Amino acid sequence: MQAEDLSSDTLATYLKVLATSCGTGRICCNDAAMKAAMESKGVSVDANAPIVFSNTPGQAKALGSMGRLIVSSRREMLGSASIVILEGGGKPKFFIHSANLRKSHTQVSDAIMKISEKI
53, 77, 79, 80: which has the fewest Cβ within 10 Å? Predict the structure, then answer.
């Protein structure tokens, strides 16, 4: 399955787990479909949240430089996001870009770190 094929509902579930495990429960998101999906899962969408969902390299670079944790669902964002969530074999796959994660000011839980592949 391609990263672009993840449904908004499925991805929103993974994002909720990530936001909750990071202790914030809030995510910044400009994508209307993702915003609606996250709100339906009980995730607070907040422009000032420390976690940002973005599939846009320019936005990821700008907000990442401000110390925010950038999360994406696109394979091509592996170099600019802190975490990329893809689906493989019916399970979520979390890929963590260690250098980008260190630049963020958000602590990722040990549980997420253990299930993630580091790049």
Answer: 79
Task: Tell me the β-bridge partners of 117.
Answer: 95
CB count within 10 Å of CB 69 equals 28
Which strands, in side-by-side order, build the sheet including 116-118?
44-45, 26-29, 51-53, 69-72, 83-88, 91-96, 116-118
| Residue recorded with tokens 């999360």 | 71
Segment 27-80, tens digit of pLDDT: 999 889 999 999 999 999 999 999 999 998 988 888 888 999 999 999 899 989
Query: Hey, which residues does 87 pair with through a beta bridge?
Result: 92
Residue for token digits 């430089």? 65
pLDDT, mean over the chain: 88
